Batch of 2 targets.
Target 1
Amino acid sequence: MGIGKKFDQIAEKYDTPDKLERSDVFVKTILKHIPVKKNFKVLDVGAGTGTLDIILSAYVEKIYACDLSEGMLSVFRSKIEKMGIKNIKIFKKDIFNDDINIKDFSLVITSMTLHHIEDTFKFVSKLSSYLKNGGYLVVFDLEKEDGTFHSDSSDVKHFGFERSEVENMFRSAGLEFIDYQTAYTIEKDRNGRVSKYPVFFSYGRKSLNT
């Protein structure tokens, strides 16, 4: 089963209170570190049910949100219709095989998606290609973990990432690497004990002179 189909099956139950809290923290972290402006055009790859984008939409001009799961995007569409949000455009795309005919985003975001990607260097390079000169790439994902975060790891390609790995991805994509820091900690019950899984926030910038 492909990852898109797998997320289709859990889409209706995906938005739990902890995920909503996580998205709120992620947006606050972005706003703290990046000079987001009202004229920003944003691309979110792996947008899921849109919890992050719905919050961020109040601060930017337009968000283009894509994901592989039609089920997740259906939940996303329903939410923005009910909330009357007009500046989010949702589409189903495979970032490797379906091009996006826009290349001047001020901000590109991918959240909790990188660990599902086999070729992370190719992925980050692809995301970088959509940035305008001076634009920012933001990645949220798991710090290195012991493989217990997912109860089913069949579609997991990496058990988190260390700072040096992420820095190398950014630099290989021609981006200025700016920072990597813990942004949030996810707690899960594992065999009757609480296990903690830190999530990093990392960002970089495309040169103004590219």
Note: Residues 3-206 form a domain with the Rossmann fold fold (CATH 3.40.50.150).
Target 2
Amino acid sequence: MSKALLALAGLSLALAAPAWAKQPARAVASVRHARPAAAVPARNTAASDIEPSSDTVRIAEWIAGSGDNNALPYAIVDKPAATVFLFDAKGNAIAAAPVLVGIAVGDDATPGIGSKNLAEIGPAEKTTPAGRFLAKFGLAGKQKVLWVDYATSVGLHPIPATSPKSERRRERMLSPDPDEHRITFGCINVPAAFYKRVSPLFAKKGGYVYVLPDTRAIEDVFPRLVVQETATTRGDGGAEQSVALR
């Protein structure tokens, strides 16, 4: 696969891969036309471009090929890489950005965590659960957020103004080290400019958020992915062929 680049802050934004070019017009290849989130400052490294991981590529291909998003906008959150990719209902890429996620490595929410106060949540419970979520806007107190999973109080929103300075969330957002992006109680923090792209897309009917896992196999989190890949890579006679996803 040719090098895929999603740049921030005035840099060119491109995401191109031969495998994606085989998808319909609404497929992920259209991300090369996405506009950068201009208000997001670039990371202070030569790697200021956001490049999708192989797992992000697999998920994007699966959604584009199967229509799993049910004609709704969607976002792919890559927890291990601390990045997010936004698409409209037709699969056209809109933007990409760095994210902050739960401080604890893990893919499952603690049962009953949604009813706990923040002070009651232990360090090991501060996870961002992996999976496919139908996200809709709602209130968190007086603040409007995109609820990724309301039951576990996981939302997607900008960095809260009330965040302690000691957490250095804005500095962490710009760090090239994915480990530095683990600081939240489980919510997904995104740049304000990126959030403005999300709002009009998800405003009416909501949309899907696909959160990639830390420790679980991606096939376990998204079992439909395996079905789609098997169906699209089966040759004459039913023999399965290898998938070129690099």
Note: Helices lie at 18-21, 54-66, 169-174, 192-202, 218-221, 223-232.
